Amino acid sequence: MTLKLVGAALTVLAPSWIGFQIAARYGRRPVELRGFQNGLAVLVTEVEYGATPMPDALRSAARAAGPVAGAILADAARRLEAGGGITPGEALSDALAEHRGSVCLTPADEEILAALFPVLGASDRHDQVRHLRLALDRLAAAEAEAADERRRYERMYRYVGVLSGLALVLILM
Amino acid sequence: MDVQLLFRIAGVGIIVAVMATVLKQAGKDEQGQMVTLVGVLVVLMMVVTLLGKFFNLVKATFGMY
Fold first, then answer.
1. C-beta atoms of B19 and A170 within 8 A
2. CB–CB of B13/B39 below 8 Å?
3. Among A71, A90, A157, B17, which is least packed, fewest CB within 10 Å?
4. Which residues form the domain of B49?
5. What interface predicted TM-score (ipTM) does this complex get?
6. Alpha-carbon torsion (A89, A95, A98, A99), positive or negative
7. Taking each helix axis from N to C terminus, what angle separates A54-64 and A67-82, rounded to the nearest 10 degrees?
8. What's the structural domain count of chain B?
9. Distance to chain B for A145, nearest Cα, Å
């Protein structure tokens, strides 16, 4: 009897955990998009008024970008400083690719960043700023969409997780 | 035993109904219909065994072998 109860509790807990995990992804995406926007906004200032060297600019952007986006920007700065003749775009793309597992961005979000990265540090100031502003606009649109999806799906996945656990217990009982 | 099965069917019904409502509210109508369909099938599986028993009982009662 006790064993049955423990099994039932585990059977409820497992799908609930999966549901909460999926819901958490929906919660984290707008935060990460906002972080990238903050970082890129700092980068705009650094490029436009400071003409700071790229690793330093990336580092100060990383400080403003929050934990997840900040880790990627800081990683790119490290890669640039390590040398090896890579461009800032390559450093950022590599950093993004390495952190892909811990980031909740969709392919469309990554596409926005991938369109921006090759331009950074590779053309004149106005062109870089233009591309940065374009990426900022697209990220803002993506964030609004992500917030909308969060509102719609975050709670739903939690409910569905718990309820499917309960249904499973009832069916197997 | 029979009462327990009844309660189980009722529980599956309630959970499936709530799940379908939640999915529908989130705009995933198709998944909601899918869940309802799966619920119906599961309950049908439970009932089918009972129906089989019932028919066997009828056959046994009237000696239709």
1. no
2. yes
3. B17
4. 2-62
5. 0.76
6. negative
7. 160
8. 1
9. 15
